Amino acid sequence: MKLFTRKVLTVALASTFAISLTACGGTTNTDGKDSAKTQSEPAKETVKKEPVTVSYLAVTSQLNYGGIKDLIAAWEKKTGNKVDIQAIQDDQYDNLVKAKLAGGGDLDIFFGAYQKYDVANQLLQISGEGFESRLNDVALQSMKYTDGKIYAFPAPMGLATWGAFYNKQVFKDLGLSVPKTMDDFNKDLAAIKAKGITPLYFSAKDGWTMLQHRNAVNGIVGGTDSSIWDKLNKNQIQWKDVPAFVDQYKQVEDWVKQGYINKDLTATYDQQQQALVDGKAAIVIQGSFIDSELMKKKADAQIGFFPLPNKDGSEKLALGGATQVFIAKNSKHAEAAKDLLRYLSDKEQVKSYLEKSPGISPFKDVDVSDKLSPAFKEIQAVVSAGNIARHGDDAYVVPLPYDELVAAYTELLAGRITADQFVQKHGDMYVKNAKIAKIPGF
Questions:
Q1: Sequence-ordered strand ranges (E) for 152-253
Q2: N or C: which end of the chain has fewer CB within 10 A?
Q3: Largest CA distance in the chain
Q4: Phi (first) and psi of residue 325, to 5 degrees
Q5: CA-to-CA distance for 12 and 336, rounded, in angstroms?
Q6: Helix or strand run (H / E) with residue 305
């Protein structure tokens, strides 16, 4: 996910609304001429709209962060409206939303990315909202569609990034330092394996957790040459023509051969977290959202972070844009939905969310740096140094072939295909999706 990108990826809220109707009474002469009022003007009457129920479709995992359910409950109490929170499994989410949009089903608020939808015909245009002046440049740019208009509210989540979360105690006990290059990284993995500890722990029970490695690779791809995304979008080059991309998957193939990856690929996300905090695994490649989950597992766990190393040792992080929250263009409760999302993106609510699930704030007026964990402070240091790259899902126009990509990743990690075969499959599945989406040049 920004995933999803993550990118991957939570929101919905707003405030109260009511309309006032005024009536004034008077008399009229039978000949049509106005006469003086014979009675005093009645008091103005305020007629409140009946409470409504706003549908809010979220990926199941999103609802675990930032106390989002409590924030929504506060809006319900404030307005009298209700929110029908529908938690959808990650691998079913996109298809369900698309089906509702295509079939005219009851749909108000949902998440996603512009390239997944017929923007002008399916999403409500909301340009001119107050949040625009509050977002930092990266976040604001991510909210704009190709026509320059905005069709999404920003979720209160922190900006996501991806890389290697590691157990500092394991590294300290083995006398290891944070790797900068691929060679350094592989030497560390060999030393960790020699001590009977799992060097890298992948969770493949749910496909989205496995794809966080792909999100980390995206930062290296864009960081090497930002024009790569434009060339890929125009089909001027293929994925196999991007050395930084190919190198990363050749490395994965080698990890499998060397036994650096856990043997049980059916491990759950929960098991992955537990293995890391317990020191049974040294490193997991995940999204920044995992940090708060690790602290819940073991508050005194010593967790650090470093960007996924590349060949030359330059640090690059893929920084995701603000998480986009949409309102269906045919929503029956568009005003209430906007009110809900305004509420969630208010300074107070954003601060509350980020204090519970700390991250890189997309809002200039919200600073939670004093709440950051040691791992997040290391992420912030890379970001502050400017060593960031645009996440591929924000730059690449071809829709993500989720199911096919999960299948290919599983085959690669299981050692059933080589890196070259993976890269070819990866390129083919994106070309197929580009043709289905009728993207020019494919």
A1: 153-154, 162-167, 198-200
A2: C
A3: 105
A4: -120, 120
A5: 10
A6: strand 303-306
Reduced to 3 states (helix: H, G, I; strand: E, B; else coil), residue 204 is: coil
Phi, psi (rounded to 5 degrees) for 319: -105, 115
DSSP 8-state assignment for residue 135: B
Q: Which of 127, 28, 15 is nearest to 77 (CA)?
A: 15
Tokens of 191: 């030393």
**Token duo for residue 417:** 């295909």
- Kindly provide the b/e burial profile for residues 44-59, where b requires at least 16 CB atoms within 10 angstroms of the residue's own CB: eeeeeeeebebbbbbb
Q: How far apart are CA 429 and CA 421, in angstroms?
A: 12
Global pTM value:
0.72
DSSP summary character for residue 43: P
Q: List strands edge to edge, sheet with 281-287.
A: 198-200, 281-287, 162-167, 303-306
Which residue spans within 48-123 are E strands per DSSP?
53-59, 82-88, 109-112
Cα separation, 166 vs 189, whole angstroms? 12
Per-residue pLDDT tens digits of the chain, which is 442 residues long: 434 333 433 333 333 333 333 333 333 333 333 333 333 344 444 446 789 999 999 999 889 889 999 999 999 999 999 999 999 998 899 999 999 999 877 899 999 988 889 999 999 999 999 999 999 877 888 899 989 999 999 999 989 899 999 999 999 999 999 999 999 999 999 999 999 999 999 999 989 999 999 999 988 888 778 899 999 999 999 999 999 999 999 999 999 999 999 999 999 999 999 999 999 999 999 999 899 899 999 999 999 999 999 999 988 888 888 999 999 999 999 999 999 999 999 999 999 999 988 888 889 899 888 888 999 999 988 887 878 887 888 888 898 999 999 999 999 999 999 999 999 999 999 999 999 999 999 9
Q: How far apart are CA 209 and CA 218, in angstroms?
A: 15
- The C-alpha atoms of residue 367 and residue 381 are separated, in whole angstroms, by 15
Distances (CA, A) of 393 to 129, 220, 294, 402, 405: 24, 13, 26, 12, 14
Q: Is the dihedral of CA 87, 341, 293, 253 positive or negative?
A: positive
Q: List Cα–Cα distances, 110 to 101, 123, 211, 321, 406, in angstroms.
A: 10, 10, 22, 17, 23
